[in-house]
Backbone:
């Protein structure tokens, strides 16, 4: 059974940093692209960032480019999102998702909530 | 880049069929057969319903089907059931600097 468990969310002040983690199990992690997708309270889904199986392809949404960094550790079956210079508009539930390349998202975690507020 | 365009809401009666549209451009929906659809119940993670325009993952009911014409993709749900009442999102690969884009979401009401 595929499991994706996010952690690292919380309340943070604007301008500060936060690092999210996603622990994966139930599939061969280093065979698949992984992604972060977020959802602001009461709003729709927004793709944030994706990384290919070998970290050779990395992409970001324009809204986070230059502030967020995605990475993965295939030895630990883990995905990460380093979020710097956080803004109030970054407040959202952040979902980790197993991707079929950048075509679609097969499985999703339950999410971790990030709240950016002073 | 703007989100794909979905109707904010649709409704249908139990047992009927409804279609949710997802309109983009030739740089996303119209340019690639990489449209996917997701169902999301309140407080839950999204679930993949359709991938690559019309393919269904194993375990997804055949009441859900997908199609595409030009720059518009569609999700059809037949034999509406009460548990279908929730939010639906489309997504597409794009040729822009942001390679993945979602629609704004559609709330389905089953009356």
Residues:
């Amino acid at each position: 059974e595929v499991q994706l468990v996010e952690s690292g969310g919380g309340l943070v002040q604007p301008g500060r940093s936060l690092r999210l983690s996603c622990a994966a199990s139930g599939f061969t992690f280093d065979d698949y692209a992984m992604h972060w997708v977020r959802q602001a309270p009461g709003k729709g889904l927004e793709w944030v960032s994706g990384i290919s199986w070998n970290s050779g392809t990395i992409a970001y949404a324009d809204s986070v480019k230059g502030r967020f960094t995605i990475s993965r550790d295939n030895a630990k079956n883990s995905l990460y999102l380093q979020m710097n210079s956080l803004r109030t508009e970054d407040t959202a539930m952040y979902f980790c998702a197993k991707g079929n390349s950048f075509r679609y998202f097969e499985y999703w975690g339950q999410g971790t909530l990030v709240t950016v507020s002073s | 880049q703007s989100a794909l365009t979905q109707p904010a809401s649709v409704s249908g009666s139990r047992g009927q069929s409804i279609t949710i549209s997802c309109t983009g451009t030739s740089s996303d929906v119209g340019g690639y057969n990489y449209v996917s659809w997701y169902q999301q119940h309140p407080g839950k993670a999204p679930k993949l319903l359709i991938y690559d325009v019309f393919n269904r993952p194993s375990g997804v009911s055949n009441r859900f089907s997908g199609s595409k014409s030009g720059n518009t993709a569609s999700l059809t749900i037949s034999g509406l059931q009460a548990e279908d009442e929730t939010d639906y999102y489309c997504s597409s690969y794009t040729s822009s600097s942001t390679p993945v884009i979602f629609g704004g979401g559609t709330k389905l009401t089953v009356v």
